[in-house]
UniProtKB/TrEMBL annotation:
It comes from Rhipidura dahli. Pfam families: PL48 (PF15903). Residues 1-294 form the FAM65 N-terminal domain. This is RIPR3 protein. The lineage of its organism: Eukaryota, Metazoa, Chordata, Craniata, Vertebrata. InterPro entries: FAM65_N, RIPOR3. Belongs to the RIPOR family.
Length: 294
C-alpha cells in the first residue's frame, strides 16, 4: 500500500493541498467565530471536533425546527380558512385583525425556513471539512509508512497543515452552529422523595451546562409543599456539554451530598415542554422534577 503512494507524492499531494485550501470554509463563508473560538486565531490549542455528536445534535435540531414549521403551517392553514369565511360573513375590523395574524404567521414561517436552510448549509460545510480532514489524515499515514524522501517529507508537511486547517474550520462551524440552537427554559418542579423528604428539610440544587450555572435553594414546608428561591433559568444549548445536576442537603453549617447525575439535551429539541424526572440517588429514593421548554 505504501508503494502506491510514493509515486504520487509530488503532484497529487500538491493537488490535494490546493483543493483543501480552496475548500477552506473561512474562504467561502463569512463565519464570525464566537468568543469561545477566538483562541483559534491566536494559534492556541484547537478543540477536538466531535463529528458524531454534531450529527446527533443536527438531526435533533432539524427535527425540532421542522416540528415548529409544521405546527405554524397548520395554524396558517386554519387562519386562512377562517379568513375566507370572515370576508363574507363578519365585520371589517375583525377581518383586518385576522389578516394581521396571517401575515405575522407567514413572517415567522419564512424565518423558520431560513433558519433550517442556514443550519443545513452549516452542517453540509462541516461534513465536507470532515471528509477532507479524514482524506488528508489517511494520506498522511500512508506517506509516513512510505520510504522517506524529500518529496514525501514536503508532502507530509503540507498534509499536516491541511489537517490542521480542516480541524480549525470544523471548530469554527461548530461555533457557528451553536448560535442556531436556540434556548432551553428550565423550570424547577421540585423534589420527589416520599418518606425521604420531611418538613423543615432544606436542599440546594446546582445545575450546570458548560460554563452556565444555576444554583437554587428550597425548603420542605409543614404541609409537604416546597418553596424555592428561583423557579426558572434560561440555558444556551451546547454541542458538547451535558447537563450536570448536583443535589445537596443543608443541615445547619454542614452539607450532605445526595447525588450527582448527568442528563443529555438531545431530546429537548422539540415543540412540546419536556417533563424530566431524574433519579438523584442510586436507588431512586430522591428524584428531581424539571420541565424544559425549547
Amino acid at each position: 500500500r505504501s508503494c502506491s503512494f510514493t509515486g504520487f507524492s509530488t503532484v497529487q499531494s500538491r493537488k490535494l493541498a490546493k483543493s483543501l485550501s480552496r475548500s477552506s470554509v473561512r474562504s467561502r463563508m463569512s463565519l464570525k467565530p464566537p468568543k469561545a473560538y477566538n483562541s483559534l486565531q491566536k494559534g492556541a490549542l484547537i478543540w477536538d471536533p466531535k463529528p458524531l455528536q454534531v450529527k446527533k445534535i443536527f438531526e435533533a435540531l432539524k427535527k425540532g425546527l421542522n416540528e415548529y414549521l409544521e405546527a405554524h403551517q397548520a395554524e396558517l392553514d386554519y387562519l386562512a380558512g377562517r379568513h375566507k369565511d370572515t370576508k363574507r360573513n363578519s365585520r371589517l375590523a375583525f377581518y383586518y385583525d385576522l389578516d394581521k395574524q396571517i401575515r405575522s404567521v407567514e413572517r415567522y414561517i419564512r424565518k423558520l425556513e431560513f433558519h433550517i436552510s442556514k443550519v443545513e448549509e452549516l452542517y453540509e460545510a462541516y461534513c465536507i471539512q470532515c471528509r477532507l480532514r479524514d482524506g488528508a489524515t489517511n494520506m498522511k499515514q500512508a506517506f509516513a509508512l512510505s520510504p522517506s524522501t524529500k518529496a514525501s517529507r514536503e508532502s507530509l508537511v503540507e498534509l499536516y497543515k491541511n489537517v490542521q486547517e480542516c480541524t480549525e474550520d470544523m471548530c469554527f462551524i461548530e461555533g457557528a452552529l451553536e448560535v442556531h440552537l436556540g434556548e432551553f427554559h428550565v423550570k424547577m418542579k421540585g423534589l420527589v422523595g416520599f418518606a425521604r423528604l420531611c418538613p423543615g428539610d432544606q436542599y440546594e440544587v446546582f445545575v450546570r451546562l458548560g460554563r452556565q450555572k444555576w444554583r437554587l435553594k428550597g425548603k420542605i414546608e409543614t404541609d409537604d409543599s416546597q418553596t424555592w428561591d428561583e423557579e426558572e433559568k434560561i440555558f444556551i444549548p451546547n454541542l458538547h456539554e451535558k447537563f450536570e445536576i448536583k443535589v445537596t442537603e443543608l443541615r445547619g453549617l454542614a452539607t450532605i451530598l445526595v447525588g450527582v447525575v448527568t442528563c443529555d439535551s438531545i431530546n429537548f429539541f422539540t415543540t412540546k415542554p419536556q417533563a424530566i424526572i431524574v433519579d438523584i440517588t442510586e436507588l431512586g429514593t430522591i428524584k428531581l422534577r424539571l420541565e424544559v421548554l425549547w
